[in-house]
Amino acid sequence: MALTSDDWLRAAYHHFADHGPDGVRVERLARTLGVSKGSFYWHHRDRQALLTALLSRWEQLSTDLIHTAEQQPCPRASVQWVLDSLLQSVPNSVRSETQFLNWSRSDPQAALVAARVEDRRVAFLTRQVRRSGLDPADAPLRAELLYAALIGLLDRVGRGSAAASLPTLSTHLLSLIPPRALTPEPA
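Structure tokens predicted for TetR family transcriptional regulator:
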């Protein structure tokens, strides 16, 4: 069985979701894939190179998610699409999200990538709030609040705390972006 670099990366992503960066070990991945460790070193210089590739993959997936979401017809649908995408893969996607953010608290390279990802996410949410017709000056604050609530929700779902009430929680979360913003009556 000839594996590709991407096969190793996919396996690493799954182990990462369950165990964080400490769970991404060459020997463990080789056992999971049913191959020798030599196959790993054919594709990756070392474990750190794999972890760097893992960070890059997460950043790319996050960017792709935002790009696809922005193709939705309205701001609320865009945010709903992101939320659904992250929550559809419960618990793997949710766990990997929380693992990446947790990792960023202790690893400088992960912190840089997480900062870029979070900046893009908040900028996306800011654009959606502005698209909804709400006060543009209020958009950055509302986006930060929406993002903080989303991350908190993902963390709780990842720990199994909020899974039962997910539909209700996501509906309330989306209420920060009204379906149609109210505009003041002309004086």
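The chain is about 70% helix and 0% strand.
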